[in-house]
Amino acid sequence: MAIRSLRLRIQIWHAAILSLVVFGFAGLTYWQQSSWKMRETDRELAAAVEVLTSQLATIPKDEFAALISPGAVADTNSSRANATWQNLSVPDTFAYRRVRNRFEMPYFVISDSTGKSLKTSTQRFERTPPGTIYPPRQSSTYVLLRRMGEWREAYAQGPAGTTILAGRFIGTDYRDLHELAWTLTAVGVLLLFVGLIGGWIVSGRAVAPINQIASVAETISASELSDRINTDSMDREFAGLADTLNHAFDRLESAFQRQSQFTSDASHELRTPLSVMSMHQQLALSKPRSEDEYRETLAVCQRATQRMTDLVESLLVLARLDANPSPRWSTVELGELATNSIEDLLPLAEPKQIAVETQFEDSVFVRGDKIQLAQVITNLLQNAITHSPVGSTIEVFVNATETRAKLRLVDNGPGIAAEHLEKIFDRFYRIEADRNRRESGGSGLGLSICRSILELHRGQISVSSQHGKGCQFEISLPRVPASPDNSAQNLNPVD
Amino acid sequence: MRILVVEDDADLLAGLSQALRESGYAVDQADEGNSALALAKAGSYDAIILDIMLPHLNGREILTQLRHTRSTPVLFLTACDTIDDRVEGLDLGADDYLVKPFDLAELLARVRAMIRRHHDVRDPVIRMGDLAIDTNARLVSKDGVPIELTAREYALVELLAMKRGGLVTRTFIYDHLFDDNHDSMSNLVDVYISRIRSKLGKDFVKTRRGEGYFVGN
Predict the structure, then answer these.
(1) Predicted confidence (pLDDT) per residue in B3-46, tens digit
(2) I need a surface site. Which of A23, A99, A272, B105 has the fewest CB within 10 A?
(3) Which residues of chain B have a CB within 8 Å of the CB of A437?
(4) Contact B191, B153 (CB under 8 A)
């Protein structure tokens, strides 16, 4: 089962690591302490054995043999050797530790090769001497150690086959070590406990910004998109997360704003024709009218209806481009497409005596939706015809570079002031002075439709203009080689 | 009463003007900002119906500039429908705010109310002695008996009634009774005055020679 709480997981890891460290350290301390104590004891005992050995070495060999022979009488031997034998002892200096009772004093046993005890210290314990030391060693200073329960002993080969053993009670050391073990355990548990509480608090503080971020993010809804997470007093790691979220909120907010701006613009645009209709209908119905007046009312209503129809059409085109951009891809010859659009719009140009001059490069192919691309050219041309003065010329060029296909449309209309140039592709953007729709007839959506279509085709649309000297629109699309198969293919180069 | 209608949509402008004229108002028109401001500043209008989205100069700018010199009642008639738009419009000094699409009857009622407020008239039926002038029904009655008046005659009676207790010059009457389409002579005012005298009684309006006309309370 996975633990889903970060804080709990941090705490568990923290506890594991902390106990490992605390108890590892305690164990190391204990081991160090006990081995130090044992080594100390061992050195002490080895020294005692060596002292005894060196004392015995002062006794001549033959005297020593006599001294230890069975049935030897103490008094009969030479007084000097005898005195040494009698006063054989481990010096007090070896019991430098504070001795709590006499058992803790070092003791010694000298036994013969049969294991029979020849001489013992005053603190003699009823313990079995080691007997023959295996493996027997020639070196008299070689010390072997053995541990027997609460005693620790060292022994070595003495002269004439004797064994010299020195030992010490180490029960007290063991009790000290036990005490140390308990102290270490208690301190370790306490440290662990304090560490865990501290860890819980620290991890709580560490995850607190996450909760703060979450609570702010929760309050940010569609109606309250302006709130942001305050990153001023936040740690770098969380500030990064909060910044990321804030940027996401920014994008969300601007998308919402664009959406609501679009909706409000659309309803705004629908209001005027609706007002016209309702106004004229109420006026017509307010009193009996002549047939001509009714006709006029109907004509006005028809114009308003046409305007609303155009607007709704444009809105639908845009909505479809936004929601489900699925062009019917085919290979299109740009010049041919432009020619068709121009022919369609000639009836609009003729009454104003506007000439459309073309200069098309051959075989400029692009991939795209024929109808959508034709719409782009038609929209641009229609704008040009609407804004061009009577008797002027509109030029249309199609040419290509290695990778791009270009269509350029130049008119001699009034042009567009610089401050409007960037915005003319925005939805419902209409140049103030051009608001009289009776003349321009536009919905304010034509150029944004062009831009949407071109974005879908990985193309660009740009405009340059000098106020009063006409303007020039250029669309650019990825060029494709001429394809013998001109039919619709379901290959979609965008996705 | 003379009204300026400012609206950039030609069909709407025509319809509004016709509706107002049929209600007995003299109507001037403007379809863009600059001419609207010039007209509003120069003319003596009893009310202005102002669109906000206009070419060249928008309605808000027109109102701001107009308020420096004139207190003409202004009604914003606009498609800008948000609360913020309305608050801003009214705070700029507009007297009323109506959102498109609107009801014609409501617009006319609001214009009447605005004009009454401007002349400090509370009762839509103005009573002067035995005369009752119903500004809603556009009817004048004497002792409960309706008097038949032409639209122009009624407009003159209403104008004088609104201005009762004060001196009214002939120019004032001329300016408020006829719009720019009218190129009649100003002595037409005298003709109308004599007509309403004959219908409402000689004492309704007194002539102050060389100054103008006076209507008592």
Answers:
(1) 999 998 888 999 999 999 998 899 999 988 999 999 999 878 99
(2) B105
(3) 9
(4) no
Architecture of domain B125-214: Orthogonal Bundle (1.10)
Which among A138, A135, A108 has a CA at the least distance from the CA of A123? A108
- Residue B191's pLDDT is 86
Residue B185 has pLDDT above 70, yes or no: no
pLDDT in tens, A65-100: 777 776 655 555 567 777 777 777 776 655 555 555
Q: What is the mean pLDDT of residues A327-350?
A: 88
Please name the residue of chain A whose CA is at the shortest distance from the CA of residue B51: A272
Locate A101 and state its tokens.
């009772």
List chain B domain ranges.
2-118, 125-214
- CB-nearest to A274 from B14, B55, B101 is B101
Q: Starting from the edge strand earliest in sequence, which strands make up the sheet with B47-50, in order?
A: B26-30, B2-6, B47-50, B74-78, B96-99
Q: Alpha carbon of B84 to those of A64, A135, A428, A457, B81: distances in Å?
A: 125, 109, 20, 40, 8
Topology of domain B2-118 in CATH is Rossmann fold (3.40.50)
Do the Cβ atoms of A286 and B19 come within 8 Å?
A: yes
| CB-facing half-sphere around the CA of B61: CA atoms within 13 A | 13
* Reported ipTM: 0.82
Contacts of B81 in chain A (CB under 8 A): 267-268, 271
User: Among residues of chain B, what percentage have pLDDT more than 70?
Assistant: 97
Q: Is A408 on the interface with B (CB under 8 A)?
A: no
Query: Is residue A241 exposed (0-12), middle (13-18) or buried (19+ Cβ within 10 Å)?
Result: middle
Are A283 and B82 within 8 A, CB to CB?
Answer: no
* Per-residue b or e along A82-110, where b marks 16 or more CB atoms closer than 10 Å to that residue's CB: bebbeebebeeebbeeeeeeeebbbbbbb
Instruction: For residue B82, give the chain A residue with the closest CA.
Output: A264
Inform me whether the C-beta atom of residue A287 falls under 8 Å from chain B C-beta atoms.
yes
Check A435 against B31: CB less than 8 A apart.
no
Per-residue model confidence as pLDDT tens digits over A388-404: 888 889 999 998 888 89
User: Within 10 A of A426 (CB to CB), how many other CB atoms are there?
Assistant: 17
